[in-house]
Amino acid sequence: MTRFVDSSAAHRISMFKFALQVRLICFAIALASTGPTQGASSNLEKGFLHPPDSARPWVFWFWLNGNINSNAITADLEAMKRAGIGGVAIMDVDQGAPKGPVEFGTPVWVDLFKHMCGEAARLGLQVNMNNDAGWSGSGGPWITPALSMQKLVWTETTIKGPKDFDGNLPQPLAVRDYYRDIAVFAFPTSDAEAASMRNSAPKVTASLPDPTLDTGKLIDVDPNTSLVFPRPVPGKPQFIQLQFPQPFSARRLLLTLPGLSAHKMCHGELQVSDDGQAFRTVREFDAEAPAFSLDFNEVAARFFRVMFLSAEVYLEQLTVAEVDLSPLFRIENIEEKSLFVPKKESPGKPANIVFPEGLAVAHDRILSDGSTYIGGRSIGWENVRRHAHR
Questions:
Q1: Per-residue burial over 225-255, b = 16 or more CB atoms within 10 Å of its CB, e = otherwise
Q2: What is the DSSP letter of 214?
Q3: CB–CB of 260/289 below 8 Å?
Q4: Are residues 247 and 306 in the same domain?
């Protein structure tokens, strides 16, 4: 039998066999690679379900103001281990918490730190810490006053001209006996600016029950003398009252309140009265730093009362060192701009601005004993400021 074969059909069959062989080879390669891919996927899933210690998160661990003991340390670490934490970064901080029995760096504190290290090793946790108490690093006795943070300080002296002045100017307060003079500035002032609350001899009274207390400490220009009040609470406020023989004009209240901070704030208000009976509120305030000032629209009255209405629970008692009322209106928000307080609000615009051409600079006339000479000019009152950094 004769068999006829179409050459074109044979070619198509050959190409089909070749394509089939290619598909079989690709399928074999796919089968060969399936095992390792599944293994890698399985390892990734296991890593998520059971992460290695190197992948576990760390947390900040705040030791709050000496409130620590061995049992609490162990309980905290075991809880962190159960939660999957890999390590801790310890920071010994205040945060406004009541003071505890264990002061940073004392032998008791060191013993507790050693206990913590042993417990962390037992649980497989890593430990790191800030290198001193608080938020700042590298603090310690090796930081001398000259290397530490400093600020500008000043005193003011009012003299009446025209005349030559040759005498001592009061030195601004110094911290840890570090003080360096910068300059002495003299500029003209008005009679109103020369007015002083202390020259008006106000009678000072307070809500403290002891009548023998020396309320004069509140206006003696000495921040080291003070009166201590109970913590004000709603319904049991504390107050300081200034009574003047004649109406006194003021638009600025200054308070020195040792012990206040952002976590130990005090809420209050300034009140005035003409007869000492009916008082009206001038402005409310939140004091949150030892250096506090409050600006308000100018008011004249015989009675000024600083009412402390409430305070944070962390403030155990209210200490007041200085109270001053002034007719001056200084730079708005000066405490905030000087970084004395974290935040502050005061309305209005600064008045009685002294421009550079009105300054008489006498920085090269300060002698070693603090005496200063300033030549007299044909002006009225003169305000002399001694500036320095400490």
A1: ebbebebbeeeebbbbbbbbeeebebbbbbb
A2: -
A3: yes
A4: yes
Task: Cite the DSSP H helix spans in the chain.
Answer: 7-49, 70-82, 107-123, 191-194, 334-337
* Beta-strand relationship, 238-256 and 322-326: antiparallel
Q: Distance between CA atoms of 235 and 213, rounded to whole angstroms?
A: 23
Say if residue 213 is in the same domain as residue 185: no
Q: How far apart are CA 307 and CA 229, in angstroms?
A: 12
Tell me the residue type at 118. Answer: G
On whether residue 40 sits in a domain, the answer given is no
Alpha carbons 211 and 387: distance in angstroms, whole number: 39
Single pTM value for the model: 0.59
pLDDT digits (tens, 9 = 90+) for 333-382: 677 677 766 554 443 444 455 555 555 555 444 444 544 444 443 334 44
State pLDDT tens for residues 206-221.
Answer: 999 888 889 999 999 8
Q: Is residue 17 part of a domain?
A: no
Based on the domain organization, do 150 and 124 belong to the same domain? no
Q: How many domains does the chain have?
A: 3
Cα within 13 Å of Cα(279), Cβ side: 18
Distance CA 243, CA 201 (A): 9
For 106-160, the DSSP string reads SHHHHHHHHHHHHHHHHHT-EEEE-SSSSSSSS-STTS-TTTS---EEEEEEEEE
What pLDDT, on the 0 to 100 scale, is given for residue 351?
46
Q: How far is CA 94 from the centre of its chain?
A: 12
Residue 140, amino acid: G
Evaluate whether 216 touches 225 at the Cβ level (below 8 Å): no
Higher pLDDT, 298 or 14: 298
Is residue 185 within a helix (H) or strand (E), and if so which, with residue range? strand 180-189
Report CA dihedral (356, 361, 363, 364) to the nearest 10 degrees: 130
What are the tokens at 383? 């305000």
Parent domain of 107: 53-129
Report, as an integer, the average pLDDT of 297-308: 96
Residues 79-119: tens digit of each pLDDT: 999 999 999 999 888 777 788 999 988 999 999 999 999 99
Q: Decide if 200 contacts 186 (C-beta within 8 A).
A: no
Pair 226, 302 in one domain? yes
Residue with token string 């003696």: 220
Tokens 């198509």 found at: 12
